[in-house]
């Protein structure tokens, strides 16, 4: 197999939404903080590091978060602000390379094999970027530097928050020695169960298995597993990642009031969730669309700082978005739709969870 030597940086802002809020509220820095609207059906968009110590996470119902941590501070999300910071860090990336592949508002891959400022070391590029981000936005980012995307993504999590880890080509096999399979991108619950049944727990456990054996057990993903166990990942940084949404909608047989429309949410969510899961997509943004009886379309969206983990997270977000629609008792609706966006392939990018 051809082996391409690249210098890839994965940049990931630390607890992004929460950090933007805490930048403006330094008095709350040591306290558990979540970004969420207050309300009966509210869900958490992001949790600060002190809040995570209580088990709080994004997409969790706010009521659960408050039970786990009664003194949690709740700040309302400001998505336009997060988008503005996102554009700013993108400009900082562009000082070094045009090969930028954004994964979400606060995460991107950069190919700096050839970088605009001709810095000899990719770790130097990453240091410059992180220093500029801190100086210009007041926020910290973590970076992973490696010869490929798979390793760069894992490395950025290694010393989070405000950390940087380089995996040089000669360090790859040592690095892979201690990597549990459960932490490998794309290993979902079903695959994990299968691995347990086969007695595979560490990435190195896969090494004795042939490509054919892995494909037999894991289907197409077996090919990827075979390569990852050897630290191989030849995917290039793709700057023209298209913006997609997976959605489903239903037109009602009778126009319905807002209160009655939520019964359609579970089924629509399940349908969209299954179709995303089948294509191995994870999502961070939820959208609900309603069409009024007189054909006006209303949409509301909610973004999370990490991937939605389960269909119930998706449903909870939709129910909350319905509460953010105009609460006009006279309004009737003829259509409801739900969608997932900010999609990325889980077998490419993996999940956001802390690795060690
Ligand atoms: Mg992040």
TrEMBL record:
The record marks 17 as: Substrate discrimination. PROSITE patterns: UMUC (PS50173). It catalyses: DNA(n) + a 2'-deoxyribonucleoside 5'-triphosphate = DNA(n+1) + diphosphate. It holds the Pfam family IMS_HHH_1. Residues 8-188 form the UmuC domain. Its cofactor is Mg(2+). Keywords: Cytoplasm, DNA damage, DNA repair, DNA replication, DNA-binding, DNA-directed DNA polymerase, Magnesium, Metal-binding, Mutator protein, Nucleotidyltransferase, Transferase. The active site is at 107. Signal peptide: none annotated. It is an enzyme of class 2 (transferase). NCBIfam families: PRK02406.1. This is DNA polymerase IV. It comes from Vitreoscilla massiliensis. The gene is dinB.
């Amino acid at each position: 197999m051809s082996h391409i030597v690249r210098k890839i940086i994965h940049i990931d802002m630390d607890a992004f939404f929460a950090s933007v809020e805490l930048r403006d509220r330094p008095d709350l820095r040591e306290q558990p903080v979540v970004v969420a609207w207050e309300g009966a059906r509210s869900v958490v968009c992001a949790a600060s590091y002190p809040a995570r110590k209580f088990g709080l996470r994004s997409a969790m119902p706010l009521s659960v978060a408050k039970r786990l941590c009664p003194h949690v501070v709740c700040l309302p999300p400001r998505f336009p602000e997060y988008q503005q910071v996102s554009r700013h860090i993108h400009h900082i990336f562009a000082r070094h390379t045009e090969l930028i592949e954004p994964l979400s508002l606060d995460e991107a891959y950069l190919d700096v094999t050839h970088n605009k400022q001709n810095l000899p070391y990719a770790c130097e590029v990453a240091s410059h970027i992180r220093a500029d981000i801190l100086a210009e936005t007041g926020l910290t980012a973590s970076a992973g530097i490696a010869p490929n995307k798979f390793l760069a993504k894992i490395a950025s999590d290694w010393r989070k928050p405000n950390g940087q880890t380089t995996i040089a080509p000669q360090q790859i096999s040592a690095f892979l020695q201690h990597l549990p399979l459960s932490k490998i991108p794309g290993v979902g619950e079903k695959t994990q169960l299968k691995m347990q049944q086969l007695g595979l727990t560490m990435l190195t456990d896969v090494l004795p298995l042939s490509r054919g054996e892995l494909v037999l057990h894991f289907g197409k993903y077996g090919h990827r597993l075979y390569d990852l166990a050897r630290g191989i990942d030849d995917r290039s940084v793709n700057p023209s990642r298209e913006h997609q949404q997976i959605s489903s909608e239903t037109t009602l047989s009778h126009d319905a009031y807002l209160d009655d429309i939520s019964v359609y949410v579970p089924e629509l969510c399940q349908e969209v969730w299954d179709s995303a899961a089948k294509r191995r997509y994870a999502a961070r943004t939820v959208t609900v669309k309603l069409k009024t009886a007189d054909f006006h379309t209303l949409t509301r969206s909610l973004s999370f700082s990490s991937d939605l983990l389960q269909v119930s997270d998706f449903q909870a977000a939709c129910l909350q978005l319905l509460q953010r629609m105009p609460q006009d008792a006279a309004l009737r609706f003829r259509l409801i739709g739900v969608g997932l966006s900010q999609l990325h392939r889980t077998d490419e990018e993996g999940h956001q969870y802390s690795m060690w």
